[in-house]
Every structure is written in C-alpha cells, then in structure tokens.
Amino acid sequence: MTIKKMLEEQGVSEAVDAVVIGAGVVGLAAARALAMAGREVIVLEQHDLIGSETSSRHSEVIHAGIYYPPGSLKADVCVRGKELLYEYVESHGVPYKKLGKLIVATSEDQIPALQQIKERAEKNGVNDLEFLSHNEVTAREPDLRCVTALWSPSTGVIDSHSYMLALQGDLEEHGGMIAFLSPVEGGKVTEGGIELRVGGLHGMTITAKTVVVAAGLHSQSIMRTIEGFPADAIPAQHFCKGNYYQLTGCAAPFSSLIYPAPEAAGLGVHLTIDLGGQARFGPDVEWIDEINYDVDPSRSDSFYAAVRKYWPGLPDDSLTPAYSGIRPKIQAEGEPAVDFMIQGPADHGVPGLVSLYGIESPGVTSSLAIAEEVMGRLSV
After folding, report:
1. Residue 47 domain flag
2. Which of 119, 202, 220, 317 is the most exposed place for a label (fewest CB within 10 A)?
3. What is the count of structural domains for the chain?
4. Nearest CA to 259 among 119, 95, 68, 67?
C-alpha cells in the first residue's frame, strides 16, 4: 500500500502522528512499541519487504551480553533484550533454539582474554558462564580443538524473519502500517513537526509529530537531508562487511555454537548452526567504501585458516560462499569500538525526533530493549 493511500484511509492529507523510517528489526520493534502505546504509526520502508538489509544478513544468534563494556548502552540493551526476546519468542511461537555457545582458547596465551570476558559478563549481570577444561570440552564436542573454553548456556539462535513477521503482526494489530517502496528523500524541522519528503511512485510530503530514524546503513545519509537538524550531531558513517560461508558435503560435528576469542571489529569467524541444522561460518571483517553484498570466493582461504584453529578436521573444498552483511559502524577501521548511539530531543534539541546510529550486532537480540530506549527518549 502506498503512503498516499494509507493517509487517505486515515482521513488526513499530510499530517501524521508518528513515523518510523526503516522496517528492519529495530524499526519494527520501535514502531510496535509506539503502536502499543496508542500512537498512530506509519513505517516508511524504501524496499518492498521488511528486514531486507542488515536485519536479514547476520548470524541469527541470540547473544548473552558478555562482550560489551559494563555500563555501556550496548551491554544494557543486550542483557535486557535477551530476556525480553526469549519471553517474546515463547509467547508468539517464533522458532528458536537455546543451543549454547563455546568460546574457545586454542592456545594458552588466549586464556587471559577468556577470563576478561567472564569478568566483563559478570559485571553486565550475566552470571551463568563457566570455564570448561580441555577434557570437559572434548566430552561435549570431540572434534573441537582447544585448551579450555567458556560455556554460555543462554546463547541461542532464532528464525529472524519469523521474528520480524511477528513484530509486524503486532504493529498492524494495533493499527500501525508499513508503506513499502517509500524512500525518505529529505525533510526539514518545522514548528508543526518534522516534514518529510517521501519518494516512490506516489511520492508526497508529510509532517509528523514524532519521527524515529532506524534506517541502519542509511541513518546518517537521511539525517543529513533534514534541514534544521544540527549537522554536528550526526556521527561518522563507515561500512564493515562480514562475509559468510556455508559447509557443504558434510555435516558439522558440533551441537553448540563455536566462537574463537574475539578480534578487532568483530567476534571472529565463528560456527553457527541454523534451525535447519545448516552450519555456516562467519562473519569476517572487510572494510568497504560502498554498500556491496558480493562475497569474494577467494576469501575462503582465510576462513579455512581461521576455522582449522579450532576444527582441524574441516575438509578441503567444503566451504562455499553463502551471503554477506554490512555492519553500520560509527568508528573507522583501526579505531576503538563505539557504543550504540540513540539520540533523542535531549541530545540534539529537535522535539519528537529520535535517531539511531551504529546498531549492529547484537541488534536483533537488543531490539525490544532498544524500543524501550526509544520510548524513553521520546518521553523526556
């Protein structure tokens, strides 16, 4: 349905209550929260379906909340979001499995890093991690090579598309709507709200009292087109691709998710198992200048080398390119990791506007808690 038709059905020409830009998992969660609070909500999505970018190009892991600096927004919304997400998938029948995760040290010099992870997790309120000895790990996963490992029992995997469909269903049940093929091409801050120029086949200009920009890879570029918004409040934008390979010709011998010790800009090339039992590896770290989802087959050499550190038995010629995702980074290559950024009126001075930046992993896990944060910033 076009945005114009939606507004006609609501009986208004160009004034709306609340607009969410972006129908990825975070945008859908925020729109759902607004609708359930009694707001009239329209979601503007440039593509013809929900969650077609970052939200559908990841590991589908429900993260425990163990890697992030204590007191950071990322740590808080991951731990809170995990709790909310497990409750949600249970109540809505969204497929998931709590497989657990082993974070492995393949050499003695990696053990201190695992100890730091456990200490950080406990400061974040995650108290279920435990160290397993080499023999204990081998008893669980005979083909896994390591000297020790951290066991995270609350890590799981989810059918992320089913989850987003459930969010969309909640949104629509409470009167919200999604306008597909409706890109935001610009706007300006006015006394009556935030005016948005919406493109597409039936483009128009609308004014909203509340606008939530949850556009992922496009949040910064959209915000730069809004006249009257302070340009110095918009953070830098960088793209970091993560490539994935799938295992073919054999089955993975593991029943749990397997993660190496973390590396710069990512969590290392890990092994995940989807709900259908398919094993895949990734993501790696590839800094790019423009959005491009191609997977270079030659990158498989680095995958074999990384995976064989913890699975020496990985057969030759068993990895094939699967897909890639792009992390919407705020920091550039080589710079320290940056926290999630959720800006509300108290941060930038524009009433009714919340903008989100750098929402990468653990964005899916954190989505319901991020929606709470959005609502909180709108109420200040």
Report:
1. yes
2. 317
3. 2
4. 67
Within a domain: 221: yes
Q: pLDDT tens for residues 122-178?
A: 999 999 999 999 999 999 999 999 999 999 999 999 999 999 999 999 999 999 999
d(CA 75, CA 98): 20
* Rounded Cα distance, 115 and 21, in Å: 41
Lookup result for tokens 């909203």: 208
**Domain containing 278: what range?**
101-153+237-329
- The one-letter amino acid code at 301 reads D
pLDDT tens column, 290-325: 999 999 999 999 999 999 999 999 999 999 999 999
Distance of CA 269 to the CA centre of its chain: 17
- Are 321 and 342 part of one and the same domain? no
CA distance 250 to 8: 55
Axis-axis angle for helices 73-92, 363-379 (nearest 10): 110
Examine residue 91 and state whether it is found in any structural domain, yes or no.
no
Whether residues 241 and 324 fall in one domain: yes
11 pLDDT band, cuts 50/70/90, is very low
Q: Which CATH number fits the domain that encloses residue 200?
A: 3.50.50.60
pTM for the model: 0.94
| Same domain (yes/no): 250, 324 | yes
Residue 97: is its pLDDT beyond 60?
yes
Q: 158 - beta bridge partners?
A: 96
Residue 265 lies in a domain: yes
Contact present, 276 and 162 (Cβ < 8 Å) = no
